[in-house]
Amino acid sequence: MNLLSVGASHRTAGIDTLERLVIARSDIPAVLQKLVAQPYVGEAVVLSTCNRVEIYAAVSGFHGGLGDVCNVLAEQSGIGAKDLAAHLYVHYDEAAVRHSFRVSAGLDSMVVGEAQILGQLRDAYHAATETDTAGRLLHELMQQALRVGKRAHAETGIDRAGQSVVTAALDVAAATLGGDLTGRTGLVVGAGAMGALSVATLTRSGVGPLRITNRGAARADRLAEAYGATAVPFDALEQAIAAADIVVCATASTEPVLTAATLAGREKPLVVLDLAVPRDVAPEVGALPGVTVVDIDSLATSRRTLPAAAETAAVEQIVAAEVEHFLAWLRGAEVAPTVAALRTRADDVVSAELRKLSARRPEFTEEQRADVSRTLHRVVQQLLHSPTVRVRQLAAEPGGDQYAALLRELFDLDVPHATKADAVPEIGGQA
Description:
Largest sheet: 6 strands, parallel
Radius of gyration: 28 Å
Helix content: 40-55%
């Protein structure tokens, strides 16, 4: 099996495309099952966030696996395969490992260094584990990716460069409202993970009074209590907006929550931060007088999302070292079936010779046969010990797969293994 990563993000697709690609949490188990039901896909993990949708898969062939994953994404999103291909990035084997580690470290995020992606990746891995679509290869990849993300935040200052998408959005809001958010009235629409992060960030920024509304009132009540905010009923949304200077929308709704009608009659300036995918704010809202809408697309082009070069370089070094460590493990894992096949071949030869000996020397007692058997097995084990230990060591080095291939050729071993594609064609672009 080989690693394949296929996806689209804020780097390769606009929000219109991401809105169609996004996979609701409730749909992820079905998508995972659909993926592993494909001919070339053996394992799968689905990561779907506000600005990226990507599939990590263990595949038995590059072209077949890529076709399977793209077909599932096209069917799920309703986007034709040709149109979809223009927005996808594809990473294979070593590149897929590197991409997953860069994602977990926050290097590929809209706000470079944000830590929220680590929790999102963990949730994606848990969903695959619960659905039983992550096997040995993706278990190892996800566990190592999560460890790399933790290292990046613990050993560098990457998270200080940009805490989250919310932080970047608030920077834009502050600039629009004169540079200071202290004392500004805020409203958060949505009480999920992004809503909770928004409440925490707004509170730290001095926004207040702060109100929270959510279709599920109980969740809004708990979040408001935790931060000293006020929960308001969802059906009082228009009144809450009328009193607000800043509105953050972060729901899981598939339809716009804020429309021009919602803001009818409003006079004072308003900044709306739309952090949802699909979008919570209808397009016509941005054209209203005095209303500034900041969404994922506008954040993607903001230089506020860029961290210090030194911190980025430090994380890139961690990623490079961890990629090599993972590849060494992978090469060692790939030689294991060859070593096992060699030992099985040796055991078969010993067993065949013992049967011949028993036929020639029927007078041997059971104890004598056992002594001969133990002696032959010890001799074979001693002969194989050094070369099998050494081939495992050599296999962990770059180019080490040639040693496993040489063993298979020398001993005529039949070891089923996936054939890697000679070349990986470009689709869309590499993000």
